[in-house]
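Me: I hope this is not a bother. Any chance you could explain this protein sequence and its C-alpha cells? It all follows right here:
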Amino acid sequence: MRYFIIAGEASGDLHASNLMRELFKEDPEAKFCFLGGDLMLAQAHGGKMVKHYRDMAFMGIIAVLRNAKTVLKNLSDCKQAIVDFQPDVLILVDYPSFNLRMARFVKEHLSAKVYFYISPKIWAWKEYRIKEIKRYVDKMFTIFPFETAFYRKHDYQVEYVGNPTIDSVYTRPNQQQTFTEFCIENQLPDKPIIAILAGSRKQEIVGCLPRMVDAGLRFPDYQVVIAGAPGIEADLYNSVLKGRNVSVVFGKTYELLQQSKAAVVNSGTATLETALVGTPEVVVYHVPMGRIGYFVKEVVVRVKFVSLVNIVAERLIVKELLAHLFTVNNIASELDLILNNSTYRQTMLQNYSIIKEALGEPGTAERAAKKMVSSLLLQENN
C-alpha cells in the first residue's frame, strides 16, 4: 500500500520513523512519500521526502506571519505531492495547524483514508478542533491514556496504542556507558553535568537558551552541556551563546540525560523523555508578554499543567517556570534544590514511577502499525 506521512518537527520525525519501520514489517510492499526528517528518510526504503521539517517548523503566530509565503508554499507543495502520489492512506503526526488542513484536502479531493498518529493536544487548548477531527479523520491513534476519556466525551472513538517515548527511551543506545566514557567520547571535562534541552525550533533556542544556560553557570562545580537539536546548525548555538563557557553535544540527548545530575528542559516531549531516563528536571516555558501572556494562558489553556510529566501524573512532580516566572534566579533556585537537597531529589525520582506505570509497556509503533495495516486491508477487501 501507499503511505503519505507528515511530521512537522523533530519529535514527529522520530516517532514517524519508528512507525514506518513497523509498517514495512507488516506490509513489505509499502511505498512511502513524506514530509519529515532524516530519521524518516532512513526508513523510507527508497521513498521520497517532499520537504524537511526544518523548513516547516514555525512556532507562534508572529513567526507564521513573518514566514507566510513559505507556509503557503509548504501547504501548496504538500497538496500537490499528495495528488501526485495517490496514497491509500494519509498518516498525520501531531502538527495540527498544518495537518488538519491536509486532512480536509484529502477527504474533499481523494478517496484515501486519513489516520492521525499522536493526537493534537486539543485537550489542552483549541478544543473546537474536535469538529474538524470528527469530520476529516477516519481513525485516531492516541499516545496518552487520558485522551481516550477526552474523546469519549465528544462521542469520538480512538485507539490508545501506548506512548512512543517509552519505546525510544527503553531502546536507547549506550545504556551501559559510564560517565567517564561519555566525557571522553564527547571531549568533556571530568565534572558533573547540568543538561540543557532548549527545544528543537530556532525561535525556542534563541528565546530560551541564554536564561537556561546562565542559571546552570551559577554552579561552578558543574559543567553545562547543551543537547543540540536535530536539524539545527552549531552556528546558531554559537551565535546565541556569545562566548559562554558551555559545550554542545549533538545526537546524544539520551546519553547526556543519563549522565547528568540535573536538567533544565523546555516544555514539550523532552520533559517526558527526561523523566523516563530518570534525570531530575526543572521545566521552563516562554510565554510572550510575560505576566499578560501568563494570564491569557490561564484563561485559554484547559489543563492545570504544561509539562507532560505533570499532566500524565495529574499532580505536580516537576517545577514549571512559565512566562514571568521563567527567570535565571528561579531556575537557579530550583537547580539548587535538585542538586543539594537529597530528600527533594529522591522524591522527584520516586514520583517518576507514576509516569512509567501510566504509560504502559514498550511496543507503541508496532501496535499502531498492526492496527493501521489490518484496518486498511479490511477496507480493501470490503
Remarks:
- The longest strand covers residues 260-266.
- The chain has two domains: 2-168+362-381, 179-359.
- The mean pLDDT is 92.
- The domain at 2-168+362-381 is CATH 3.40.50.2000 (Rossmann fold).
